[in-house]
Amino acid sequence: MSEMRLVIVGAGGRMGRNLIRAVHETAGCVVAGAVEQAGSELIGRDAGDLAGLGPIGVAVSDEPLALFAKADGVLDFTAPNASLGFAEIAAQARIVHVIGTTGFSPAEEEKIAAAARHAAIIKSGNMSLGVNLLAALVRQAAKALDTGYDIEIVEMHHRHKVDAPSGTALLLGEAAARGRDIDLASHAVRARDGHTGARNSGDIGFATLRGGSVVGDHTVIFAGPDERVELSHRAGDRAIFANGAVKAALWGRGKKPGLYSMSDVLGLAG
């Protein structure tokens, strides 16, 4: 099979540059395009230069439609509004769309699901292989430990992150909720302030920390009578997300249209 031709959108951002490097360094795929928004000063620059690789012969463009038409997949860590536009184009082109963007509203999630009727979309709140393994362990722990064990999720990211809780924290919360066979939306507690009263049994709490240059720290706490179980993951480099996204794209090549997750990619779904 020929090399998988991948387009990186948001190519000039921190994740975009990591994605360019990851694709360039992974056997079986090649950087086929790089996209930035219209008016960006990066238009025309060589994508390899942006990523510190030296020239690779791929110029940054603001025309995704033309690039998607000649590609096999797209890697997307941008913003919800941008990702919705890319999902529509990728669906028209029938190419794999890997989405690492977080912060979608319920209505936006429905639009992503609609696009997945026409193309394979692999979407996750975190593309790290380790985080997705953690989610599987959280689900197992939540199933094994009864409601006498309170679940709290603590996460910390850099000062520039715009959504809270993070997509990863929500991914872990969903895993815990599935383990308990409950609906996360009706049991999530995202903030506590003032005289809140006692904690409700069955709640899944979220604590959000922001500061510095932290790539991503997540801990799921199961606090029971006289003991506490903590499952944690700490990201040291954004390369782990980029490498996971490339793995997802390669996995998705040839798959039927549908909405997939990293659990599917890693064989952890179930």
Describe this structure in words.
By secondary structure, the protein is α/β, with parallel strands linked by helices. Helices cover 35% and strands 24% of the residues. The protein contains 9 helices and 12 strands. The protein has helices at residues 14-25, 47-50, 64-69, 80-93, 106-115, 129-144, 167-180, 239-252, 262-266, and strands spanning 4-9, 29-35, 60-61, 73-76, 96-99, 120-123, 150-157, 188-189, 204-210, 216-224, 227-235, 258-260. The strands form 2 sheets. It has a 7-stranded parallel beta sheet with strand order 3-2-1-4-5-6-12, sandwiched between helices. Helix 1 (14-25) packs across helix 8 and helix 4 (80-93) runs parallel beside helix 5. The radius of gyration is 19 Å and the shape is elongated. The mean pLDDT is 95.
What are the key terms here?
270 residues, alpha/beta, 7-stranded parallel sheet, 5-stranded mixed sheet, 9 helices, 12 strands, elongated
Indicate the proportion of strand residues: 15-25%
Contiguous helical run count? 9
- Give me the secondary-structure category: alpha/beta
Count of extended strands = 12
Gyration radius, in Å: 19 Å
Topology:
Layout lengths: L3 E6 L4 H12 L3 E7 L11 H4 L9 E2 L2 H6 L3 E4 L3 H14 L2 E4 L6 H10 L4 E4 L5 H16 L5 E8 L9 H14 L7 E2 L14 E7 L5 E9 L2 E9 L3 H14 L5 E3 L1 H5 L4
Parallel strand pairs: 1-2, 1-4, 2-3, 4-5, 5-6, 6-12, 7-9, 8-9
Antiparallel strand pairs: 7-10, 10-11
Write a compact overview of the structure shown:
By secondary structure, the protein is α/β, with parallel strands linked by helices.
